[in-house]
Amino acid sequence: MSSIKKVHWGVLGVANIAVKKVIPAMQQSQWSAITAIASRDLAKAQSAAQQLGITRAYGSYDELLEDPDVEAIYNPLPNNLHIEWTIRAAQAGKHVLVEKPISMTVAEALPLLKVRNETGVKIEEAFMVRTNPQWLKTLELIKESRIGEVRSVAGYFSYNNQDPNNIRNIRETGGGGLMDIGCYMIFFARLIFDAEPTRVVSLIDEHPETQTDILTSTLLEFPAGHATFTCSTRVTPYQRVQIIGTKGRIEVQIPVNAPPDLPLKIFLDDGSDLTGGSIQTIEFEPVDQYTVQGDLFSQAIRENKEPVLSLESSIRNMAVIEAVFRSAKSGQWEAPL
User: How high does pLDDT run on average in the chain?
Assistant: First the structure.
């Protein structure tokens, strides 16, 4: 592996997810090297660079994009800045890994297809769960018909964030539970059924002051079955995904925030013992899913392969998010557009 020429990465902003999770994970990568970080506040960029051992710090995003040594950009900026700076980075000839959700709306995301095709760079939404070994195994079990035909998917994802100044509670920058964590539940349902929902219906509770969605419950109709999920930003932290088939079920214990230093578990159950006696536990060695994500994107760059997740798929995920919002307002079933 020593012969690998690592991809040189730059990071836009000093978001917590970047500084605390993604950068440290990618610094353990065989294919990636974090060489620069930028903030609109130079002191913040310098502080993060010193803390993380990054050699270059910039006081503007444009300066980073002008760095000829930077080949790829990680964009963890607020949701409302994802598209603007992904397009700017692509036009500067940089490949881009952009945090989820990829945009605020479908219409906003569509220009990414054009800029990708014109520049030839690779652009991928950072759904790190897609390449986590626990999800690869889950999809393998489904493909092998270990639980028969999948008919139902149920997901739950919540945390309790009461801070009105936290970006997840600011409507204008794309805050709210659906954009932040509900997007995962939609992503999982589409992944498991390997199809798009034909229509959705939803209920949303908005916070009276922040006007962000704090409790969202949705039913999605797929050609082969149904999916449901609830996400919330104001209840006790919890997450699970249940996949129910005609011959059994799979439960993913920590579907999203998988700890990098602990074994992961999924449960395979044929349903013969409702007290749990028939459950088979499948355990995975600890792995940092952000390291895996960075490795695979960098490898796609070096080997000129397509990223694991296509832009087209990400835009379809956003179309479902939009339909969920529309349904909550109309009180009717809505089809993703």
Answer: 97
d(C-alpha 195, C-alpha 123), whole Å: 22
- The terminus-to-terminus CA distance of the chain in angstroms comes to 45
Q: Percentage of the chain with pLDDT > 70?
A: 99
Question: Across the strands, what pairs with 56?
Answer: 36
pTM of this prediction? 0.97
User: Catalytic residues, which ones?
Assistant: 100
Strands (E), the chain: 7-12, 32-38, 56-58, 72-75, 95-98, 123-125, 150-160, 199-206, 213-222, 225-232, 234-245, 249-252, 264-269, 279-284
Q: Is the CB of residue 27 less than 8 Å from the CB of residue 52?
A: yes
Query: Which residue type, as a one-letter code, is found at position 31?
Result: W
**Separation CA 153–CA 163 (nearest Å):** 32
CA 268 to chain CA mean position, Å: 25
Q: What is the pLDDT of residues 25-53, one digit of tens each?
A: 999 999 999 999 999 999 999 999 999 99
> How many other CB atoms are found less than 10 A from the CB of residue 6?
15
Confidence of residue 2 (pLDDT cuts 50, 70, 90): low
What does the alpha-carbon distance between residue 238 and residue 265 come to, in Å, rounded to a whole number?
15
Measuring CA to CA, how many Å separate 288 from each of 21, 134, 256, 264?
9, 12, 12, 11
Radius of gyration of the chain (CA): 20
The H or E element that residue 316 is part of is helix 311-330
The predicted-structure confidence for 237-287, as pLDDT tens digits, reads as follows 999 999 999 999 999 999 999 999 999 999 999 999 999 999 999 999 999
- Relative to beta strand 234-245, strand 249-252 is antiparallel
Alpha helices in 102-176 (DSSP H): 106-109, 111-119, 133-143
- What are the chain's domains? 7-128+291-306 (3.40.50.720), 133-286+318-330 (3.30.360.10)
